[in-house]
């Protein structure tokens, strides 16, 4: 680990000020990912700005019936919050399917969005990686790529975003509240993370001098009928091979509302708009589920070891929708 | 001997120390002035080091030394571990890293950085730049190297080939047959305690090494060869080991490098391998490709048994993992063909992993038996019972003890096997397909050598001493129980000192041999002590034992008493007091008598078991969950119900990990291990395990000390096959390449 300066920020403006002053500095929350990256010398900040004392840990109801999740609320606290459990079960399930209780107790909501890919080669500083070192090449494309992306990849990078929580947030149309020196603004979750394109080193559209303060969940009454289905190699403490966050409202044998997002398949949580379009207004049948899944995965590209994810993603979509539909009928 | 303590589920004697953090592991030994070493890994798999740039590292804060092959003090090559040596060295390889510019595997240590603190050493190690020349591509694939596979001289101490009758002809003629290839991947060791070493020198030629090892005297031998010291000048200490599983039977490169670094900086040096180094600097279980072909008559009697295949060793070691041993001893057949081949890869030297040989061999053989049972439409247990051999099928001697039938009978009843519909894909619960599978477990019951000293004080305190190891298996507990019964004292009176080369010599604790070996030595030492005590007593007309002969007596109530006179006898304290002695001691070696050595050849010593499991396979996603486990094991007398049970539970757990989750991935371009971390190398987790029900027959083996066998490995064997067989039963899909990951079942 490279030696670094530790700064504790007393408030948001002090934190932002410190970041503006030092372009190499990094904010630290739970540190569950950043510290690992620093130990491996993947991240080499010369300063960490500890934001844990900032008053951003609240979870509160918004006037419209939505919820505001504080940036520093811990993942475990968020998952187990009564209103989250009642109104957004998909989010609770997604968070609890991730990592371990110890990690969730430390990891923050904002940190969860900002965690970096678990691509093996990104973590190994002796391997080429365009995300870690732009222009050095991608070791994953011709290497071992079982855990890599099948959608939205580029010739520069086939890494996936590792978060489960963010997949649920994508299905819930969350917005990320951001503070900068110029004031507060919000970024829709879909515009928050990026596809790799020619700049895989940039995971998100958050600037260095910007700080996430909260994640807002809009009021979504039908999200009580939601599900997070995660397929992985090991039943705990493993990243998703494929995951599906699904929100579904069926009435009068018709799909009134549907939201689908996929994890483990792309550089960002993958909102399945093509599938949603086919499903909306249709009768909830196995055939339509499969057709929607096929449409969503039409553009998917498999590599040597991850081609199975294409079929797995389709099946997982169908299974998630089937399960929710059965619940409606029951 | 009357057993009061042996067999009892006594809590482990070191349990309290461990759960309160007072048990000191190697990395926690307090030594003043300790400096920290970090090893730099090569980033190519084969080639030469052309140049180092160590300037930045040398100038980094706290750095005491940057040692490369260019400035490393000369060490001497060491002999590779050879099981046919009487006292083998623990060296995994003949290659001496940092004595050469040659790179033989990706991750081979190419420099050692020593600094005042661990963080400083880690940071400086990342600043070392090494340039390499790569002349020819590395050989990294077992499959690609198969054309160059050769039959090694031996497989452990056995012949690589066995031919009885004509198996290929018999196979061709058999009315029922199967013939398939099974593969197992490389697996990496991941005990909770990573390997670590702390070394310092006293004067020029006294080396003291604390090492997390399961083979103290092998480490001592290697270091004495490496530094040209007499063995007495090297002391190796290993009090508590946080899991070994075979990986600590070898002294990996860090051990010698730590001692060397301590010499260079003139201070104690500690090297505690980071998790990544566990993948790169500690040998894995070899990958294997095995063919099993079985031919049977209509009644299911085996007419032909063929088990051949290939494993890998490195370019600098020779260990051919003995996957074929199980087939030499498990089932009867007139026609048996066994052949092992080996390829050499540019990899870290491979090594033992819990149930080496049998762990992967039983996957192939016991999967094949299941396939044959389906071909015959015969119950898989019945198929096995019909092929029970009267005596060992290739050694042609009786088994010392074999109760496989009883294991299946008990297991079938407890599991409810007979309710099973044998039809594949016949049970489901929602999207979950359910299946049940069974397999035999098999592991040798070998012995090694050990010396034990027993010391009794006038207050009846007994101290046992032997340089054996406690790596969590319960050795200290069960041998205290053993000595308590041998001497007829409460177990609380006995303390066992182990883990130090200053103590009487013991062999490595691997191969499930420690219980019998150390147990036998404890028995002999205690007998010697009792005979000495009796000799003291018979001299005196006043002693109630004046007329006694040893065979008339038994040890109980803290003394020697007549077997047929419950009250007539004398306590040890009384015997010692009369002589004016405070204490007495005795020492013995095992195996001691010609009888044991002859028995070794007159019988086939093995343990057996029956593994039953139920799995649930998700029909859409291919996820596999093991939902039920029943294991029944035949490994002689159980010395401690609780520690043995823990061994079985841990073994089944490792078997499940081997079947479903674990796999070391090698990037075939350069030997890199992409998943060299605990988040991507999937060891078992509690939520993935069912309630594991284990039972031991506890039938004594009449030909071993205490009637015991080791219990540490038997329950790994057959586990992966039982799971693969259950997956077939659930889905109708046979998986012949481990691990059984979801993609293989889509």
From TrEMBL, chain A:
Keyword Acyltransferase present in the record's keywords: the answer is no
Which PROSITE patterns does the UniProt record give? FAD_PCMH
Give the InterPro entries listed for this entry.
CO_DH_flav_C, CO_DH_flav_C_dom_sf, Diverse_Substr_Oxidored, FAD-bd_PCMH, FAD-bd_PCMH-like_sf, FAD-bd_PCMH_sub1, FAD-bd_PCMH_sub2, Mopterin_DH_FAD-bd
Pfam short name (any one)? CO_deh_flav_C
Keyword list (alphabetical) reads: FAD, Flavoprotein
Question: What are the FAD-binding PCMH-type domain coordinates in residue numbering?
Answer: 1-222
This chain's protein is named Carbon-monoxide dehydrogenase medium subunit
The scientific name of the source species is Hymenobacter cavernae
User: Lineage in the entry?
Assistant: Bacteria, Pseudomonadati, Bacteroidota, Cytophagia, Cytophagales
Automatic annotation (TrEMBL), chain B:
Q: Name one Pfam family in it.
A: MoCoBD_1
Basic and acidic residues: which segments have biased composition?
Answer: 78-88
Q: Gene3D superfamilies, alphabetically?
A: Aldehyde oxidase/xanthine dehydrogenase, a/b hammerhead (3.90.1170.50), Aldehyde oxidase/xanthine dehydrogenase, molybdopterin binding domain (3.30.365.10)
Signal peptide, first to last residue: none
Record keyword Oxidoreductase present: yes
Q: Which InterPro entries match?
A: Ald_Oxase/Xan_DH_a/b (IPR000674), Ald_Oxase/Xan_DH_a/b_sf (IPR036856), Ald_Oxase/xanthine_DH-like (IPR016208), AldOxase/xan_DH_MoCoBD1 (IPR008274), AldOxase/xan_DH_MoCoBD2 (IPR046867), AldOxase/xan_DH_Mopterin-bd_sf (IPR037165)
* Keyword line: Molybdenum, Oxidoreductase
The Aldehyde oxidase/xanthine dehydrogenase a/b hammerhead domain, residue ranges: 20-136
Region called Disordered, residue ranges: 71-92
Q: What is this protein called?
A: Dehydrogenase
């Amino acid at each position: 680990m490279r030696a670094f300066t530790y700064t504790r920020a007393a408030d948001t403006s002090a934190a932002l000020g410190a970041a503006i002053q030092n372009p190499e500095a990094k904010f630290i929350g739970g540190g569950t990912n950043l510290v690992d990256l620093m130990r491996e010398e993947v991240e080499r900040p010369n300063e960490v700005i500890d934001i844990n004392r900032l008053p951003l840990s609240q979870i509160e109801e918004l006037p419209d019936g939505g919820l505001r999740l504080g940036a520093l609320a811990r993942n475990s606290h968020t998952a187990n919050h009564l209103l989250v459990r009642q109104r957004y079960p998909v989010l609770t399930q997604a968070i609890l399917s991730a990592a371990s209780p110890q990690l969730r107790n430390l990891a923050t909501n904002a940190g969860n969005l900002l965690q970096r890919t678990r691509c093996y080669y990104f973590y190994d500083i002796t391997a080429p990686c365009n995300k870690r070192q732009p222009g050095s090449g991608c070791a994953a494309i011709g290497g071992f790529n079982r855990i890599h992306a099948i959608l939205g990849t580029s010739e520069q990078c086939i890494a996936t975003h590792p978060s489960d929580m963010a997949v649920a947030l994508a299905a819930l149309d969350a917005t990320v509240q951001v503070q900068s020196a110029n004031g507060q603004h919000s970024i829709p979750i879909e515009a928050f993370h990026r596809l790799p394109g020619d700049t895989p080193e940039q995971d998100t559209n958050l600037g260095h001098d910007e700080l996430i303060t909260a994640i807002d969940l809009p009021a979504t009454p039908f999200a009580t009928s939601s599900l997070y289905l995660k397929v992985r190699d090991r039943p705990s403490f493993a990243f998703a091979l494929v995951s599906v966050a699904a929100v579904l409202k069926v009435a009068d044998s018709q799909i009134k509302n549907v939201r689908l997002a996929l994890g483990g398949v792309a550089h960002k949580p993958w909102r399945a708009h093509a599938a949603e379009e086919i499903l909306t207004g249709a009768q909830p049948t196995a055939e339509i589920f499969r057709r929607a899944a096929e449409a969503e995965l039409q553009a998917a590209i498999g590599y040597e070891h991850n081609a199975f994810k294409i079929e797995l993603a389709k099946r997982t979509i169908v299974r998630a929708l089937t399960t929710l539909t059965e619940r409606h009928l029951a | 001997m009357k057993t009061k303590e042996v067999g009892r589920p006594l809590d482990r004697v070191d349990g309290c120390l461990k759960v309160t953090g007072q048990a000191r592991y190697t990395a926690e030994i307090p030594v003043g002035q300790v400096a920290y070493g970090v090893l730099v890994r090569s980033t190519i798999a084969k080639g030469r080091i052309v140049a180092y740039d160590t300037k930045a590292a040398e100038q980094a804060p706290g750095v005491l030394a940057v040692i490369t092959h260019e400035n490393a003090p000369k060490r001497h090559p060491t002999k590779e571990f050879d099981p046919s040596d009487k006292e083998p060295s623990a060296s995994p390889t003949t290659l001496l890293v940092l004595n050469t510019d040659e790179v033989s595997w990706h991750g081979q240590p190419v420099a050692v950085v020593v600094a005042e603190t661990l963080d400083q050493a880690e940071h400086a190690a990342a600043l070392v730049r090494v340039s390499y020349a790569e002349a020819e591509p590395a050989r990294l694939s077992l499959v690609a190297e198969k054309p160059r596979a050769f039959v090694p001289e031996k497989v452990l101490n056995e012949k690589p080939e066995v031919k009885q009758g004509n198996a290929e002809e018999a196979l061709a003629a058999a009315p029922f047959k199967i013939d398939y290839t099974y593969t197992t991947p490389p697996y990496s060791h991941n005990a909770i305690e990573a390997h670590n070493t702390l070394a310092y020198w006293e004067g020029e030629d006294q080396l003291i090494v604390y090492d997390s090892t399961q083979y103290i005297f092998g480490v001592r031998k290697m270091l004495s060869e490496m530094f040209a010291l007499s063995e007495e000048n090297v002391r190796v200490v290993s009090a508590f080991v946080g899991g070994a599983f075979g990986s600590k039977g070898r002294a990996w490169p860090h051990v010698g490098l730590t001692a060397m670094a301590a010499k260079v900086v003139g201070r104690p040096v500690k090297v505690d391998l980071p998790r990544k180094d566990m993948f790169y600097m500690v040998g894995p279980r070899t990958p294997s490709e095995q063919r099993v072909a079985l031919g049977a008559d209509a009644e299911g009697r085996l007419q032909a048994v063929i088990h051949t295949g290939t494993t890998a060793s490195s370019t600098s070691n020779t260990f051919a993992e003995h996957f074929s041993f199980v087939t030499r001893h498990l089932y009867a057949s007139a026609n048996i063909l066994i052949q092992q081949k080996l390829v050499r890869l540019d990899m870290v030297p491979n090594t033992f992993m819990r149930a080496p040989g049998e762990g992967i061999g039983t996957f192939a053989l016991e999967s094949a038996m299941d396939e044959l049972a389906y071909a015959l439409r015969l119950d898989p247990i019945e198929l096995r019972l019909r092929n029970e051999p009267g005596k060992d099928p290739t050694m042609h001697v009786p088994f010392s003890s074999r109760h496989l039938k009883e294991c299946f009978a008990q297991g079938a009843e407890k599991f409810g096997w007979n309710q099973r519909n044998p039809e594949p894909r016949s049970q489901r619960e929602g999207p979950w397909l359910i299946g049940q599978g069974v397999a035999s477990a098999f592991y040798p019951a070998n012995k090694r050598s050990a010396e034990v000293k027993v010391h009794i004080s006038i207050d009846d305190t007994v101290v046992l001493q032997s340089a054996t190891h406690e790596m969590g298996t319960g050795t200290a507990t069960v041998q205290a129980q053993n000595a308590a019964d041998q001497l007829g004292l409460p177990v609380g009176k006995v303390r066992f000192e182990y883990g130090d080369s200053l103590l009487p010599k013991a062999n490595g604790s691997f191969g499930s041999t420690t219980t019998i070996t150390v147990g036998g030595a404890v028995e002999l030492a205690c007998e010697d002590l009792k005979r000495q005590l009796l000799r003291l007593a018979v001299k005196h007309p006043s002693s109630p034992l004046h007329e006694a002969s040893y065979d008339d007596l038994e040890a109980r109530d803290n003394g020697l008493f007549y077997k047929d006179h419950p009250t007539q006898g004398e306590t040890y304290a009384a015997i010692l007091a009369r002589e004016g002695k405070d204490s007495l001691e005795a020492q013995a070696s095992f195996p001691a008598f010609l009888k044991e050595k002859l028995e070794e050849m007159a019988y086939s010593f093995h343990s057996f078991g029956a593994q039953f499991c139920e799995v649930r396979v998700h029909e859409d996603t291919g996820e596999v969950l093991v939902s039920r486990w029943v294991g029944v094991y035949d490994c002689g007398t159980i010395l401690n119900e609780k520690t043995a049970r823990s061994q079985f539970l841990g073994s089944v757990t490792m078997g499940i990990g081997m079947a479903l989750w674990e796999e070391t991935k090698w990037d075939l371009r350069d030997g890199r291990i992409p998943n060299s971390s605990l988040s991507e190398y999937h060891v078992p987790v509690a939520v993935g395990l069912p309630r594991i029900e284990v039972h031991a027959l506890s039938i004594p083996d009449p030909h071993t000390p205490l009637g015991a066998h080791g219990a540490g490995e038997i329950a790994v064997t057959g586990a992966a096959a039982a799971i693969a067989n259950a997956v077939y039963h659930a889905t109708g899909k046979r998986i012949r390449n481990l691990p059984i990951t979801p993609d293989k079942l889509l």
